[in-house]
Structure formats: structure tokens, C-alpha cells
Amino acid sequence: MDLAARPWVASYAPDVPRSFDVPDGTLSDLLDTAVGTYRRAPALEFFGAATTYGGLGDAVARAAEGLRSLGVAAGDRVALVLPNCPQHIIAFYAVLRLGAIVVEHNPLYTDRELRHQFEDHGATVAIVWDRVVPRVQRLPADIPVAAIVSVDLVAAMPASRRLALKLPVRRAREAKGALTTTEKLTGPRKLVPWQALLRHRPLPAMHPRPAAEDTAVLQYTSGTTGVPKGAILSHRNLLANAAQGRAWVPGLQAGRETVYAVLPMFHAYGLTLCLTFAMSIGARLVLFPRFDVGLVLDAARRSPPTFLPAVPPIYERLAAGAAERGADLRSIRFAISGAMNLPQSTVETWEAATGGYLIEGYGLTETSPVAAGNPIGPTRRPGTVGVPFPGTDVRIVDPEAPGRDRAQGDAGELLIRGPQVFQGYWRRPDETGAVLLDGGWFRTGDIVRMDDDGFLTIVDRIKELIITGGFNVAPSEVEDALRAHPGVADAAVVGLPRAGGGEDVAAVVVLAPGARLDVEALRSHCRGALAAYKVPRIIVQAEDLPRSLIGKILRREVRTQLLNDGLRAEGKGDSR
Asked: Which segments constitute the AMP-binding enzyme C-terminal domain (predicted)?
């Protein structure tokens, strides 16, 4: 069926193309085009220090030659263990220019988490925030990292900021300590300062370039459903998703937008929306090594943002901070939320503060990551994650028999097909075969419902469904019921194994200020909204819930903690 005839296309905002062709070329070509078109325009800003597109292109060419001198060649994996900073963008494109593969890592990972990923991808060179260098040096000797490029974030700051960090006062020492290490770096592996890479001559223009189908990035999944796996994303996948993002936002002004990178670029959401998308429109990308309301509002006075991809808690905190400080956010015309449910109250507060749009989207690491979004215009539908992006097709199927489509309006597993769908999992053919079906369809593992106009509503994840008494229980439905109680600030619901088979519904709740845990009162409240088998048999109180860096509750960790730590006596009981 022609995608232009799909029902959701009628809801696209004006000027969004009804059909979509993937641009030719690679991410290296994307950057070259931006450098050639916007050479004198600012590409990056970091604490006020600006880098032009011409300067970025030169730094990428020099860093690429520096990496080549360390032995990096086409197909090699290069690990990036960096927060958001100019060196991150330069390193990303330098690796790709050699035809090598970027492997993104969270710099807050533990030794164990880093070890698993380094064992899996086998990178021989790592570009690492200097505060994390000791952790990479501690990797076992049988892991083949031969050289570590050490990155000092302070070196990318303006001179005035660097001088301020040298002041002999406690506040300056603490600020500097959060950005760079004061310890002498040593270890068994070769250590190369980042600046040494940039002292090389530029990589010769005739050096072989990558191809569109070559692997560009190994992006490890969050691990919420098991051991993290490296999703193989090609140049074509990432180039297509950046182009789909450009097509989705009517009114973008190439060369004149300012994008704020408050999302970590080692996450697929931040990588595409901030790194590749921003470069593709010649935007000024303002970089924040971590999200801080004060830093963002200070930067907004200097370089007012126009495009902000983020998650609901960030929008809430920024709106509150701006109101408190009397800061102006009205420059932000476009805001895109993902990774978790976007409350209508957050939309209303944000749009009142900015006068711009805040819409919700949907995606996964395996879809580079964006696959659907609410239209930026009056056809948007709050409470849904929108409609499939241009060039993207979807099906709703029986999760037990994915070849069988569900009836219109019935919930089922979401399948996605499009140019942004990944190539498989790194060195995991069996797991790849389980999710990539004939015809190019990707099994998301998400249970969704589609209305007549093609708008998608997320119901839950297959692997997080709880099976109790032969019935399936969606954790999000129980969480919503718990959060509706005035004494509950937040909740996470998981299934715990029951003697004799099946699972018990277990809830961990964070109480509102001043509230006390009353298990039976919470169960009584839930009985008013849920069938009896969905009411939690176990309710436990916690001060907070484990979350990913972008704020998503990690139900797998909640479950592990409950199993490992045991259950508080007041949390046990029968919900019937």
C-alpha cells in the first residue's frame, strides 16, 4: 500500500511531505554540507565559547588524522565516554570520517557496566572524559583498548570561565572538580591528550569515505528488558531520521535555529535530535554537560533557544525556574518530548510560558530513534504519541502471532518498517532474528492501540506485562491508578514470582509530602479504578525510584531491588 494513502497522513501538519525519500550520502556528507553552507556561522556554544562551522570542520579533519595515527581504520570501533561538550561532536564526526564506528557510552556507568560493553564491541581506542579515565584504565588486560584519548572539558570553555575556575575559593574548586580531574592520570594503557589529536594536519581529502550502508554507530539499548545490546545503526538510518525530523517541523529556518542539547548525546534521543538533526539544519547547538536550570536560563539570555528536545521533568523544572526568575522562554517555538508519558498539565504550563508548541513523540534506539510524533499544529492529539513519521509504516499485530494483524482499535504489538529501522544487534544473530521479521518489520515489544485516524496510544511493553491468575496486567495502568491518589507522588509496578507459578502485582510508591503509607487505603482506592486481579497485593514505600538519565523509571531495577532487599511487612497482604 502506498504510504501516502495511509489514514494518518491526513493529520500531517501543512508542508509536511506525504511521501519521503532518504537523502543520498552519509553523516560525513551531512557535516561537509553544513560546513560548506554555514562556514562562518556558529555551530557550537559551550559556556559562551563559540565554534563556527568552519572551525568545526577543521577540527574534525585534524582529529580524524590524529585517530588514524593511532591506528583507527574503517570498520574499527571507537568508544566515546563523554558528556555533552564540543569534543564529543568533533570526535563523533572524526570517527565517522575514517569509516570507523562510534560506540557511545554513559560516562556515569560503573566499572561493571563499562566492562560488559567494552567486552562486547572490542574497541581499541577510547575517547574519554578525564574524570572517567581511571575507570577505563581499570578494565581487565584482556580487553583490547590500546589507547585512551583524555578529554578535559574546561579546555573548551572561554578564557574568562577558565580563569574563574582557578580562583582559590571553595566554590571555584568544587565547580572545577565537577568538570575535570585534578589527579595525575596514569595506567597501563597509552594515554593521549585530546589537544594532541588537534595538532595533526587535516586528514587528506582523498582519504576513502564511508558508504551509506556502512555502520555508523553502535548504540546500546537501555537494558530495561535485559542485558544491554548494541543496536547497529547505519549512516543511512541516522541520516534518514535527521531528514524525517526536518520534514516534521514546519517553519524551520535553516542556518537560524538555536538547539539546546540538554539531553545526553550518548543516548539515541539526544544523539539524533541534538547532534545530527542540529547539524543538518545549520543550527547553533548550545551544549550542556548536565541539565541545570540555572545554566540553561543563563544561556537563554545569551543565545535564546528556538528548539528544545527534552523530557517532561525538564520542561516542568524550566518553566518553574523561568517563572521564579522572571526569565523569558518565548524564543522557543518548538519543543519535542519523548521517553515517557507527557502530562497534559505540563503541555499547558509550557505553552503558556513560551507561546510555542510542545508535542510528544515515540521511538526506540532501534529506530534511530524517532518513529512517530504528534503533528506540530492543530491536528495534534494530547494523550497519544502521534502518528508515524514520513516514510514510516506500522502494523498492530497479535504479539503471540506477529503475522496476524489486530482488528482496528484493538491493542496489539507495534511493528515498524522504515528507513530508520536498525540493522540488527551487534554479534547477536538470534536476538536480531527474533525482532526483525520478513519484509523489514521490526517488533517493538510495545503494546499500542491505533485509532481510526492513525494516532497511536502506548498501552505497555510486552516484557513488562504481569501475568497473574492467567490474566495480563499492564503496569502503567496500575501506576496511573496509584498516582491518582492524593497521597502518592509517583509509583512503579512490577510482577514478582508467586510460589506455585504466576506473579503477584507489586507496587513501589513514593509518597507526597506529609503523606503516610496506608496500604489498605491505597488498595481500596485502586479497587475503584481496577479489576480485582490488577490491585497490588504488595505495596512498598520508597524515597525515590530508580531512573535512567533521561528520567524514565527502570522497572527492571525496581523488580531486582524488591527481590534482593525483601519486602517490608506492612507491604504484604491480599488485595481481594
From this structure: 477-552
